[in-house]
Write a structure and sequence with these properties.
heterodimer, A: mainly alpha, 13 helices, B: mainly alpha, about 70% helix, elongated
Chain lengths: ~325, ~300
């Protein structure tokens, strides 16, 4: 088990490095000269040339990449904004809690709403409960979140005046953003849970359990559910990534000062260190969540545990045989 | 499925014919099962309608999509303009109808590019063990470590606005997951007897992959193609919403929605209408995707 954990944690390093290299490489090809962007349209050729030299923009790609990786990972320096010269890392850590809050609330609701609804639908397959939930989930995955957000602003802010439309003033400001960004996740979770649960309900061991005379409740919640949870838990890491991505758009609808808004504003200003830093930062956060989910998963899924215990046993046997 | 081990006994042409007939039967069966599913058929009807709108947009719309008419700017829905007009007096109905072309084209093209790329890489990774497979899968790991929306934003920003770059930006997010699916499917097929038989009669790798392996995964590929299409509508609109992707003068639905968002309070029709179109399209493709999955997925057959 310990071996699996160490292996999985070590695997994080090449992935995060790869992500940083990939993002740097993509951004390297963005048209436009950073020196020109910083100095503005009125700069002379000579000024631009000097700044390019001091920024190291004339160096070969590989040297620039090395410098980027070194400053990002060894000094936690994500560069400074071209526009207001605030260090990117500082701005990111300031804004991250708001983005993370929305993404985490999404994931929590996805679990506490989506899974029970999926189970209800599967247990009552083809009855009205199932039909209603399937239709709701289908509509839920088809509504664009940013459009729903605007419809909600129209109704709850402009027409009824119940909730603030923009910015963060109190906890009320989080209601609409969280609802909009979680809708698709909850709907998806309901659909997946229903599918997996139906698969389990149709399987042989459930028939056996019924034949033994076990109560339906025990069969569903004790036996079928624990098997359904395994694929669902693997999905949670990916759902968090989707929630982070969704938050980027939702933050812009509600003008929430999170990373998403920071990044999209930067795209408009061609403020590349900010864009690059934001994506690297969120991707690292995502990778760490994936790591945690995988580790938690290893504790739940007996197959992974067995694999490693069996592996160590085999190894022990081998060692014993070579020693003997 | 054509199994060359049996080829010795049967006439080759006969075998081919029966294999083709079996394949056709399988598809016809799937199609019939799909047609019995009323919900999926409704979705299909909506998709056909959307396609017709896209093709006949110039004949259906009363005005040109870019005809500016400052005297009739910001009209709420009325008899002349059923959906109202925008800030420059352009008829919203005409713009939405023309927009169908762009939105459908982007969704189809990006999904197609992503799936084809995924099949290509997945086939390589599934068929060739060792370095090739490892390299491709590690690349997938890295691509999937970046949340899909962020990846699309990044690529879209780098390539600039426009049709082709939007298609690529959206395709990049589909390719890694398709690669994974295709690889897993091919790993299952690769060690079956008919592939071994193919090797025995000296089939080249390319022939084995294209003629004997890929046809076996067509149902799953169709399922993931239609299943992902609805997401592409929403994603491409999301990119436009952030000021990337298709830019406003082009009447793509997402761009229309973005155009209207500043006037949400007083002219909500500018936001409601394109949004409803996006939603209906996404819903239709989801319904058909589900219907196809139920009809083609062997696991779903009872």
């Amino acid at each position: 088990m310990g071996r699996y954990i160490v292996k999985r944690i070590l695997w994080l390093i090449p992935v995060v490095l790869g992500v940083a290299i990939l993002i740097f490489t993509i951004m390297y090809f963005v048209p436009g000269d950073p020196a020109q962007i910083i100095l503005g349209a009125s700069a002379t050729q000579k000024e631009i040339a000097t700044l390019r030299q001091t920024m190291g923009l004339n160096d070969p790609y590989i040297l620039q990449l090395g410098r980027f990786l070194k400053s990002t990972f060894l000094q936690l320096d994500f560069g400074s904004s071209y526009v207001n010269h605030v260090p990117v890392f500082q701005a990111l850590t300031e804004r991250f809690p708001r983005t993370a809050l929305i993404a985490i609330v999404c994931c929590i609701f996805q679990i506490v709403l989506g899974i029970p609804m999926g189970i209800q639908a599967a247990v009552h397959q083809n009855k009205w409960q199932d039909r209603t939930l399937v239709v709701l989930a289908m509509v839920g995955i088809s509504i664009p979140s940013f459009w729903l957000a605007q419809m909600m602003i129209l109704l709850f802010s402009f027409k009824l005046g119940w909730l603030p439309a923009f910015g963060i003033t109190s906890w009320k400001s989080y209601i609409m953003p969280c609802f909009c960004s979680m809708l698709m996740g909850v709907a998806n979770q309901t659909r997946f849970t229903r599918t997996y649960m139906l698969e389990q309900i149709r399987s042989d061991y459930v028939v056996t359990a019924r034949a033994k005379g076990l109560g339906e409740h025990t069969i569903i919640y004790k036996h079928a559910l624990s098997n359904t949870l395994i694929p669902l838990i693997t999905g949670i890491g990916g759902d968090f990534g989707a929630a982070l991505g969704g938050t980027v758009i939702i933050e812009n609808v509600f003008s929430i000062p999170g990373i998403g808004q920071y990044m999209v504003n930067a795209i408009g200003n061609r403020d590349y260190p900010v864009v690059r830093g934001s994506v690297v930062f969120l991707s690292i956060a995502f990778s760490i969540i994936m790591l945690l989910v995988d580790l938690g998963y290893a504790f739940i899924d007996p197959r992974i545990k067995a694999q490693y215990i069996a592996g160590s046993r085999k190894k022990a046997k081998k060692e014993a045989s070579t020693n003997g | 499925m054509a199994e060359p081990t049996a080829a010795a006994a049967l006439d080759k042409a006969e075998l081919k014919r029966s294999a083709r007939a079996a394949k056709r039967r399988a598809f016809r069966e799937g199609w019939h099962r799909m047609c019995r599913n009323k919900v999926a058929v409704t979705g299909l009807v909506v998709i056909v309608l959307l396609l017709l709108i896209a093709v006949f947009a110039p004949y259906l719309s009363k005005y040109k999509y870019d005809a500016i008419d400052p005297l009739h700017a910001h009209l709420l829905p009325c008899a002349d303009h059923p959906f109202g007009t925008d800030g420059l007096g352009r008829d919203l109905l005409s713009r939405v109808l023309y927009g169908t072309r762009y939105s459908l084209a982007i969704a189809f093209c990006s999904q197609l590019v992503g799936i084809v790329l995924g099949i290509f890489l997945g086939a390589l990774a599934g068929f060739f063990e060792g370095l090739v497979s490892d390299l491709i899968m590690r690349f997938c790991d890295i691509f999937q470590a970046i949340p899909a929306t962020l990846m699309a934003i990044l690529v879209s920003q780098t390539l600039g606005a426009g049709f082709l770059s939007t298609v690529l930006a959206l395709a990049v997010t589909t390719a890694p997951s398709t690669t994974r699916i295709v690889r897993a499917l091919i790993l299952q097929i690769r060690n079956q007897e008919f592939i071994e038989a193919g090797r025995a009669i000296n089939c080249s790798n390319g022939l084995l992959i294209c003629r004997h392996i890929l046809p076996n995964i067509i149902p799953q590929v169709i399922i993931s193609f239609t299943g992902g299409l609805s997401g592409k509508f929403i994603e491409s609109a999301g990119l436009s919403y952030l000021g990337l992707g298709i830019q406003p003068p082009t009447p793509e639905w997402g761009a229309l929605l973005t155009d209207g968002k500043a006037f949400l309070r007083y002219f909500p029709n500018l936001v409601i209408v394109p949004g409803v179109f996006i939603m209906v399209a996404a819903l239709a493709f989801n319904l058909v995707g589900d219907g196809l999955r139920d009809a083609l997925d062997p696991k779903m057959r009872d």
